[in-house]
Amino acid sequence: MASRPIDAKALAGKLPEPERRVQLLIVGAGAAGCAAAVEAATAGARVLLIDENPVDAGLMGLDAPLYYGGRYTAAVQAKARMLEQVFSAEPGLEAAMEAGAEVELGVYAWGAWIPGEGLAALPGAVAGLADEHRSWMVGFDKLIVAAGARDTAFAFKGWDQPGVMGARAFRALLQTYNAFAGRRVAILGSGPLALDTIRLAHDAGVDVVAVIEVADSVQAAGLATGLATGMDVRVACVPLVAHGDHEGVTALTVRDTRTGENFVIACDTIIQAISLTPTVELLDVLGAAIAPLSCAGGHAPASTDGARTSLPDVFIAGDVAGAPGGSWLAREAAQASGRRAARRALGLEVEPAPEASSDFDALAYQALWARVLFGAADPSLIICQCESVSLEALLAARQPDYLGPPPPAMARRDLGELLRDGPVNQDQIKRLTRACMGACQARRCREQVALALAGAANIPPADVPLAGYRAPVRPLPLSVIADWRETPEMAAGWDVWFGIRGQWTPYADIGTEREALYDGLFGGDMHL
Amino acid sequence: MSARLGAEVVVIGGGVTGLSAAWWLARSGVNVLVLDKGVVGWEASGRNGGGASHYHSPLFDEEQRLWPLMDELLGYSTEYRRERVVFATNDHHMAQYRRMAQMCRDLGRQVDDLDPGQVRDMVPLAGDNVVGGIHLRFGGQANPQRAVQAYAWAIQDLGGRILQHARVERILTHGDQVTGVETTRGTIDCDHLVVAAGPQSEALLAPLGARLPLAAARAEMIVTEPAPLMPVGGADGNGLYGRQTLRGNLAYGGGPHEWMEIGPFGPTRRPGSPLVRNLARRVAELLPRGAHLRVIRGWAGVVENTPDGRPVIDRLDSPGNVTVATMSGVGFGLSPATGHAIRDLVVEGRCTFADIGKLTIRRFAGLPEDWRESAGWRPTAHAEAV
């Protein structure tokens, strides 16, 4: 084979081979992921099924990956016990193992890449995995992302206290962790997700004391009937403030938007059950096409059949594909979705997917909540907790407080000015205000910031482009992400910058005999 | 039909170089319009380490004069901070840093030697593994994302215009003069054209008979959650460049790049890669007392390079009303001075404050057509390299 010159300082040939390769990697071991694993392993495929649960308590404190709102018991600290708990909570895990799939719990998928534009140097398709101690790479032929959906959070006064949380996290703490620490919950929202959340609470014996809806009527038909017995169902009401003490929420004040009257509801937990959004993080890092899907309440992977993505080797299963009404799929539907994805991934015949659409526009519903909540809020309301960005600062595109008071020119600038120069761009606003730049990786504010921007620009929420996700999609420590066994090729070819010989020669010496001196001393290295 | 747009000077490229040029021109009372295919500062200008310490450049004196004034001159914050510390965790690196310090001293710059204790005082996240370091009593760092927006706003405050989402499809000529540009948002007339379009500059200029050989590659960085502010934010070593931001995040890059083929519309993807693991390891080694910090982001920027890695800042002989600038991957820190030089070339026909005669486009006239292949500066598959 004729060889051509290769830049010794370029990435090609330096990334390590993955620790192992599998035929099918499945990320997410809920009902859909487990069913996919059973289907694929039964068909003879070599399957690795991973799930990040039980997640580290430190991550839970950052509301990653779900909006736990600090309402978990101390049991989540006991990792070994939690592993048993998580395993026993999902019968599909045992079924997957019995079918021959390899199962790893407590393993994060923080990145995934496939060779393509700008990524020719990859040693094949690889996923970056990690536990609490180290990271490693696994190669795959096919990947099924069954990462579920996560909570869309909304800010109101007091939302940063323990006890304000999301419906998906509530479900995880009840069903997966058996570690929910609340007793009396108020539910925000009355759509499909609220209905599913109330059912969950009833089944678990958690007392639902109130349902709060900003719209003039209850949104889910089922909620208007028998389910609501004993609950204080209030429509046309907006949450104003969550009161609390050192242990978190003790009550919620809501205002009737028609009468202006305030009501106080005693509760220890406020569950935001307005809408979920598909967990597309890994898919965005992979470069899969992603588009707004109103009935699913957020951006979802573009798919022709609910299983394929725009990438030929990457498939989706379960809620990440977009669950109707911004809620989650029923268990049987999730399992069927998993089986279809597995068969697609293995090139087997696939039965047509059942109609799973919903008339409920979960994106418009979120926009309504944002409009009413932010309309009633004080402009100083903090919308990005990690970076302390207020609603007012966001809409003023104001520089962060650590830079001191804005200079006079800055004070004349705002979002409206930026919009005169181009369409809404959440990533641009992020750079200026730091909203969504924090340690929670914007899990608490990404969607509501987009909604606030859509409201200010007077455009539908679907018209705000998705702010990009970047690996690592889990906030893991440097020492954990680190590759402590760097390849010799990597070490030898490492340079601070491009390693172009002569780039750093002092200008005056260019073209003189001293050029050779610098080349000998430094080569292309600025400083090693 | 909308009225035909026009400006005395049109700048193609709202990166930091084009923006600074437009700002300098607007300060001189020139009617200037900046075109960008997307949002200002969206490519490498907003995706870099923010370093401002390029002592090898003929523009460095002017850069050093300007940076401390930029917040005031622009009217917006750039988060500029002075000086840098480079420190070693092994003897091999330390020897190299000493040579670098001597080179800087030879250039008339002050560099102080640091013992390990002094390094730890300035960079408290450094650990017991410090061998020693050097303190550059010059240079510094700023926030690229804030600085590019500051330039853009400052241009507007001076009456200059910025047209985003306007991709240039063709440069229009009449005789030996450029008369304007055809864009996706209409035709725009101009008396003088500045081409500072990053990797796209080569293809834009080719029809004019001007050869600007460029190769684009992506380079990666990582960012951690915030840590308490260190006395010196510009602290690097261990093969890394980077900084602690004023918010407290550690932002570091370095290591291998990946060559890309860039179409006329610019990069369609800017993927990161598993290199994030190597960056994390090197940051953890350099700053062991920060090894527990969570990595919250990674990113890649696409950077264009000339064959010798040195900038081109030049006014073409023909057409005579075109000025060209590429900084070959070292544009952000030098930008206050680069804009001044470009302004001078446009308005005065020559750079008034520094000799930039070695940065002409002419030096590549005899370059073989296959220079990228010869250098290995083409995308290379893993299998091809192992």
Structural class of chain B: alpha/beta
What is the second-level CATH architecture of the largest domain in chain B? 3-Layer(bba) Sandwich
Number of strands of chain A: 22
- Overall mean pLDDT of chain B stands at 95
What is the average of the pLDDT values of chain A?
94
Largest interface: A-B, 92 and 100 residues
Coarse shape of chain A: globular
Task: Please give the alpha-carbon distance between the first and last residues of chain A.
Answer: 34 Å
In terms of structural class, how would the helical and strand content of chain A be classed? alpha/beta
Strand content of chain B: 25-35%
Q: CATH homologous superfamily of the largest domain in chain B?
A: FAD/NAD(P)-binding domain
Helix coverage percent of chain B: 25-40%
Ranges of chain B with pLDDT <50 over ≥5 residues?
none
Number of helices in the DSSP assignment of chain A: 18
- Record field, number of beta strands of chain B: 17
Structural description of this entry:
The complex is a heterodimer of chains A (528) and B (386). With 528 residues, chain A is α/β, with parallel strands linked by helices. Chain A has 4 domains: 199 residues, FAD/NAD(P)-binding domain, CATH 3.50.50.60; 122 residues, FAD/NAD(P)-binding domain, CATH 3.50.50.60; 86 residues, Orthogonal Bundle (Arc Repressor Mutant, subunit A); 28 residues, no CATH class. Helices cover 29% and strands 20% of the residues of chain A. Chain A starts with 19 loop residues before the first strand and ends in a 6-residue tail after the last helix. With 386 residues, chain B is α/β, with parallel strands linked by helices. Helices cover 27% and strands 28% of the residues of chain B. In chain B, the strands form 3 sheets. In chain B, strands 1, 2, 6, 7, 8, 9, 16 and 17 form an 8-stranded mixed β-sheet that branches. In chain B, strands 10, 12, 13, 14 and 15 form a 5-stranded antiparallel β-sheet that branches. Chains A and B meet through helix 12, helix 14, strand 22, helix 16 and helix 17 of A and helix 3, helix 5, strand 10, strand 14 and helix 7 of B.
